[in-house]
Design brief:
This protein has 109 residues and is of the alpha+beta class. It is built from 3 helices and 4 strands; from the N terminus they run αββααββ. The protein has one domain: Histidine kinase-like ATPase, C-terminal domain (Heat Shock Protein 90). 18% of the residues are buried. A 4-stranded antiparallel beta sheet has the order 1-2-4-3, with helices on one face. A hairpin with a 5-residue loop joins strand 3 and strand 4.
């Protein structure tokens, strides 16, 4: 939820009629079994290469009320589930965040 909240806030800060967030979830086969990929993309501001590289680590927040820990906590949770998180420029500006985790062997009820 933190990733979606951040995406919405970034799109809102940029504003305009084109402000949007997209969320895509898919399941796919890998050499190690099935994985789940979640991609969240927004049309917020374009980030510099340096800013992209610092995302996911404890750092100074871009938000006045932020502590700069949210994405670091998200990264730790994902890594604790044998997953990865990647931050890349969005196709329409803004940011694309991709989370990939191994799919559970059995359905979760």
């Amino acid at each position: 939820m933190n990733l979606i909240k951040n995406a919405l806030e970034a799109a809102d800060r940029k504003g305009g009629a084109d402000a949007r967030v997209s969320v895509v979830l898919n399941r796919f086969e890998t050499a190690d079994g099935e994985s789940i990929r979640l991609t969240i993309e927004n049309t917020g501001e374009v980030l510099t290469k340096e800013r992209l590289e610092s995302l996911g680590y404890a750092t100074k927040s871009a938000k006045p009320e932020g502590l700069g820990l949210g994405l670091a906590i998200v990264r730790t949770i994902i890594q604790n589930h044998s997953g990865t998180i990647a931050f890349n420029p969005g196709a329409a500006g803004g940011l694309a965040v991709t989370v990939t985790i191994p799919a559970p062997a059995h359905p979760i009820s």
